[in-house]
Amino acid sequence: MKIIGVIPARYKSSRFPGKPLADICGKPMIWWVYQQCKKVDDFHEVYVATDSQEIFDVCMSLNIEVIMTSESHKTGTDRIGEVARRIPADLIVNIQGDEPLLESSTIKAAIEPFYNNSHLQVSNLMTKIKDPVDLVNCTVPKVLTNKDGIGVFLTRTTAPYPKGSIDYSYYKQVCVYGFKPEALNFYCDYGIKYGKAKLEAIEDIEILRFIENGYKVQYVEVDSETVAVDTPNDLERVRTIVASKLQKGEIAVNNTAKSDA
Asked: Tell me, what's the pLDDT at 234?
């Protein structure tokens, strides 16, 4: 099975322009994500997919494989879909370029279900919420699944409501997705014909397009300390964590990390 990793990177973010190039301890954010992806043995190839000449040029200067894509894509998944049409693969893994603390083992977790289930079309990751701030933070999508780990709903609010008992663990989405080409084709074709799905548009969570249309999205629980960078405050938090890891020798900017970032 040929598996490729793709990191969508858009410069013109409405909330945080230029985010993929934000400096983290001397390297742009996209570099940190790419290094973790390169540690995943399952990947035959890893690419950054961008519509920005500036991001493209930075990637080239850092020996990062990069593909220029259309500026017209409305979502990162649409951008992944373009790459999938251009580079044949059996499985395409979308790794968000704004999670520089992602561990390579976490990325691999999104791939493993496909080895055991040939009918699976989409996978996604989730991790238990440990910081109460994340629970009420609307930039953090919360994941609700059934007993088999199949996604039922994602929401930016705090859900579900613990009416019967407070003995419940909440989970947040980790933005690594596995897609079979057929699923990506559905996503892109649906967008062209209808635009965003109803709940997807309300919550602004792309994976809801699959769930609303009957796809079984397999969720995999991981123990990850990843932090999605959605705001400048998030960036400062990540810089502090990376600086601490560098000081302790847990990671290195010469790609010879002693352990996962």
From this structure: 87
Task: Tell me if residue 126 falls in helix, strand or coil.
Answer: strand
What's the rounded Cα separation, in Å, for the pair 104 and 41? 9
Question: Would you state the pLDDT for residue 50?
Answer: 95
Q: Give the residue-averaged pLDDT of 65-74.
A: 93
Q: Are 47 and 53 in contact (CB under 8 A)?
A: no
Domain at 187, CATH number: 3.90.550.10
27 found inside a domain: yes
Amino acid occupying residue 29: M
Asked if pLDDT for residue 259 goes beyond 50, the answer is no
Count of domains in the chain?
Answer: 1
User: At residue 186, does pLDDT exceed 50?
Assistant: yes
For residues 172-189, give the mean pLDDT. 96
Mean pLDDT for 102-107 is 93
Backbone phi and psi for residue 128, each to the nearest 5 degrees, phi listed first:
-65, 135
Residue 259 belongs to a domain? no
Distances from the Cα of 84 to the Cα of 108, 143, 181, 196, angstroms? 19, 26, 7, 20
Alpha helices in the chain (DSSP H): 29-38, 53-61, 76-86, 104-109, 112-116, 132-136, 181-194, 198-203, 208-212, 232-248
Question: Is residue 257 in some structural domain?
Answer: no
- What is the span of the domain harbouring residue 227? 3-248
- Contact between 96 and 104 under an 8 Å Cβ cutoff? The reply is no
Instruction: Quote the CA–CA distance of 260 and 215 in Å, as a whole number.
Output: 32
Is there a domain that residue 133 lies in?
Answer: yes
**What are the start-end ranges of the E strands in 41-170?**
45-50, 66-68, 91-95, 122-128, 142-145, 151-155
Residue with the bigger pLDDT between 84 and 17: it is 84
Cβ–Cβ < 8 Å for 119, 135: no
